[in-house]
Write a structure and sequence with these properties.
One of its GO terms (biological process) is mRNA catabolic process. This protein is 37% helix and 25% strand. The protein is of the alpha+beta class. The longest helix has 28 residues.
Length: 498
């Protein structure tokens, strides 16, 4: 699905009257949304007490029979994350290995800090994932853990699950190992800073090799038939004058290369678990042929080329969200990605183990500070790789994880969508009757209603009008706004402009 990124920058204390009004509307609406979705507030006292008691003793030792935690503090790991991040799950180091590469990927060892069956464990199962909103986040674990002791912060010795993945010259894995280690990140890089260093030639070897490996993995994804929707992120923030703004940004190349290392690790995790006959996968069924045919029909209607013999993934990868007809086709393409699920197994593998968008089996394992299932996947993979038994607490949790994750993902999606809808309505609440330029990206009800994407601000809303011109630049008038209901509605003003 297209990503919607929500980000908050602190507002100045002396904001203009209009900024204060919007700020009040948004914050009141966010409180109502949290109540509606039962978003957890403060951590219970017993959770905080358990976390406070852990750092004094340090992380738990390796389970009986498992290899001791290795000392990898000499490896110059770095993290690459959005600016201001503190819950750092992953640190990376790459080096040449003959004609190929060695990828070292350190993942925060959350299980070293969380006692199975304890208060922190129970609360994490209730929260499931970290939730994000314009006024902050609702973390999966208490910040003293997720942004402190367990985080891979620079200069801090931290327990990690250390993946070592050897790749050949084409970027194909030839060997995979994962075990417990202590790591120390050397630097916390931002996406913007890392991209700037790569562009101006000042990047160190790890970043240079991240680019090389990332490109090889992107090529491998294309060869597998993987599908990534090239859609920009929606960004909510407060500007220097205290005004709420809503815009969009394209992801930087280094973000995509960094994501490829995470995907590579998730694919290796899935392979380990499938070979061992135990684990939990993130799956997505192949696109329904009827949805592919609808996409093909939409492309014809929009005048988007569909080369002879090309599959839907090839066509979608070539789209540019800045082109009106392409933006509409991207909206239609989201129907190809329906049916994502988590599937646990202990014995026979799942009948359908693939993640169709990745075009391979895949598992979530690289974000345990922010997502519940990753902690358990990591434990299974460490045991399998080391030839030891999967810990009983991890194995026992497998059957319930798909249900927990599905419910958590539903709440996270509703929360993110509600946050964006709220900010859109608040920003436009005093602009009823104004006209805006936009693109019709979806048509429903035989062309009588649909969805319009405005140029500025970056708002999507319902639009009504006879024979809506799909994928066409239009002029629309804001007809109705409700901040409490988080809705905006437009009407088509005139005809499409080509």
């Amino acid at each position: 699905m297209p990503r919607r990124h929500v980000r908050l920058r602190p507002a100045p204390t002396a904001a203009a009257d209009e900024a204060r009004r919007v700020d009040a509307d948004v914050r009141t609406g966010l409180d109502a949304l949290r109540a509606e979705l039962d978003v957890p507030a403060a951590f219970p006292p017993e959770v905080l007490a358990e976390v406070d008691a852990v750092p004094a003793d340090g992380p738990a030792p390796a389970p009986a029979g498992a290899a001791e935690r290795a000392d990898a503090t000499d490896v110059p790991f770095v993290t690459v994350d959005p600016e201001g991040s503190r819950d750092l799950d992953q640190a990376v180091h790459l080096e040449r290995r003959g004609a190929g590469y060695r990828v070292r990927y350190a993942i925060a060892d959350v299980a070293a800090w969380v006692r199975p069956g304890g208060a922190v464990d129970a609360e994490a199962r209730r929260r499931v994932v970290t939730l994000y909103a314009p006024d902050g986040r609702t973390p999966l674990h208490p910040p003293s853990l997720s942004e402190g002791a367990a985080s891979l912060l620079p200069g801090q010795d931290a327990p990690a699950l250390l993946w070592e993945i050897d790749l050949d010259a084409d970027g194909t894995p030839t060997a995979v190992r994962v075990g417990r280690a202590t790591v120390r990140s050397r630097a916390q890089l931002t996406y913007e800073g890392a991209q700037r260093a790569l562009d101006d030639g000042t990047a160190d070897e790890t970043l240079v090799l991240l680019r090389a490996v990332g490109r090889l993995r992107q090529a491998a994804e294309v060869a597998r038939g993987g599908l990534t929707l090239p859609t920009p992120e929606q960004v909510v923030e407060v500007d220097a004058r205290g005004r709420w703004t809503l815009g969009s940004r394209a992801t930087l190349p280094v973000e995509e290369w960094n994501a490829q290392v995470s995907l590579l690790t998730g694919m290796c995790a899935a392979r380990l678990m499938l070979d061992a006959g135990v684990g939990v996968l993130r799956t997505l069924p192949p696109a329904d042929p009827r949805d592919v045919e609808r996409l093909r029909s939409a492309a014809r209607a929009l005048g988007v080329p569909w080369p002879a013999g090309a599959d839907h993934a090839t066509v979608v990868r070539a789209l540019d969200a800045g082109v009106p007809a392409h933006a509409a086709l991207l909206t239609e393409a989201t129907t190809l990605l329906r049916g994502a699920a988590y599937v646990a197994f202990d014995g026979a593998p799942p009948e359908q183990p693939l993640h169709a968008a990745i075009a391979a089996p895949y598992a979530h394992t690289t974000a345990p500070l922010r997502r519940l299932v990753d902690r358990f996947v990591g434990e299974v993979c460490v045991a399998v790789s080391g030839g030891t038994a999967v810990p009983g607490w991890a194995r026992a949790a497998l059957p319930e994880l798909p249900g927990l994750m599905a419910a958590g993902d539903r709440r996270a999606s509703a929360y993110e969508r509600g946050c964006i809808d709220l900010v859109e309505a608040a920003l436009l609440s005093d602009r009823v009757g104004e006209e805006f330029d936009g693109v019709v990206v979806d048509v429903r009800d035989d062309g009588e209603s649909g969805v319009v994407q405005l140029r500025d601000p970056a708002v999507r809303g319902r639009v009504a009008g006879a024979a809506l011109p799909l994928g066409t630049d239009v002029r629309v008038r804001l007809d109705e706004v409700s901040v409490t209901e988080r809705t905006v509605r437009f009407v088509l003003d005139g005809t499409g402009r080509g």
